[in-house]
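Reopening: structure tokens for the adenosine-5'-triphosphate complex, inputs below.
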Amino acid sequence: MAKQEDQFKKVISHAKEYGYIFQSSEIYDGLSAVYDYAQNGVELKKNIRDYWWKAMVQMHENIVGIDAAILMHPTTWKASGHVDAFNDPLIDNKDSKKRYRADVLVEDYCAKIEGKIDKEVAKAEKRFGDAFNKEEFLATNGRVLGYQEKINTILSRLGKSLENEDLADVKALIEELEIADPLTGSKNWTDVKQFNLMFGTKLGASAENAMDLYLRPETAQGIFVNFLNVQKTGRMKIPFGIAQTGKAFRNEIVARQFIFRMREFEQMEMQFFIKPGTQKEWFKYWKETRLKWHLSLGMGEDNYRFHDHEKLAHYADAATDIEFKFPFGFKELEGIHSRTNFDLKQHEEFSGKKLQYFDHEENASYTPYVLETSIGLDRMFLAVFSNALVEEELENNTTRTVLKLPAVLAPFKAAVLPLVKKDGLPEVARKIVEDLKWDFNVAYDEKDAVGRRYRRQDANGTPFCITVDHDTLEDNTVTIRHRDTMEQKRVKIDELRDIIKQEVDVRSWLMKMEA
Ligand code: ATP
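Re-run output (same inputs, fresh job):
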């Protein structure tokens, strides 16, 4: 646990030191759970967004994008259910005065039991060596099965109580499990209450005429209210999708995991409109497709798992999360929800407008069902960044800090370094930058010894360093050094573009989804 916490602290300080993420309004002591993306962070974030957009929109003939406004007519949120049901169960500790999400306290308790299962697995792995079969072990070991049953019982009771709004039972569960305040150990809890997560604001100049609005808590509704506009003007035929990326706002009760849970964050969502009755097969299709997208980035198959929901949201008939192994354990990175026709029906009812599709093949109109994939861009950023940050022991007994970002996402693809700041080397290096910058984001760095510059670029995640030395002046060759292998090669300046392209090209990364 301590090791995990250390790693997480390193992630946060590295993100600041290397210009990825700053606390919002830091000079005023910051604003809780609000962050700014800095000069490198903004590039990494944009590259993740582009990678998603390319795969989701541009590679699918039947998926188009929109960019809806953050402010929407307030009735939207009555129709969607957010005014009445977008609540989290909160609980206060009477001694520490700290506030928690009651469901998260219970889930964290289960995560601890899961940690015990992991320990059993590690022990058995050691004992059995190569003969160890993890799946068989998980399915047969008595102790593991006991732990698993305990988790299932707790989560299924939590799911039922939340669904029935039986908050007294959620409190009873916390007390029965003897869950203590993680910060102080106190078990002196208040009752569980519901808390609405939407931020309110006002539209209009004078107080008496002002209209109460909400900052959108999800981007999805901007898609639903535009369903017919896009379908008609884009002449879209079912099945088809509408995608969007943009800010969403939630007044989160507990927000202390850096950019994992923020009050202002960005979502990348796609709503896929389908024929009623086909939702099971599309649910399966999008589960597989989205996992392939994640795996194409090469961040380790073992770092992902599906978590099917016990507790379904009011609009869903099936739901799963793609969880990622963050420095603080497996947590939700993306949600895939079978939303039925709930949203379109609700908007039909509240607006009085028909939101139906005429199916020429069936010669009938119907309200489409919807399959949603929804991923937090900031959570994806944290997954990529925390997974990439490693400290490596080198042969000469020194260590180096490397940010092994997938090259396709790295803010800078290459840094060009003149060996010394004289003899015309900076001029040649600048010329290389001028040429490469048409295709890639490239940096120029001439300060400090070249070894320190390599380290700086390693820590910044730059896949290639290109060094210009005196031989360059003679034969137009440079040294190109690879971030991960540290291998250096002598190549012609003319070859640089192709070498870099091979490694950073979106095409070759996304192609892995086809494999
Ligand atoms: P959680 O259970 O962690 O609160 P959620 O199930 O409410 O998340 P969804 O409403 O399904 O989340 O939103 C889709 C995605 O948006 C999530 O998978 C997550 O990546 C992202 N997301 C949701 N809330 C936040 C937040 N406060 N900060 C950052 N990202 C978020």
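Residues 24 and 35 are 5 Å apart (CA to CA). Residues 102-128 form the longest helix (27 residues). Marking as resolved unless the reporter disagrees.
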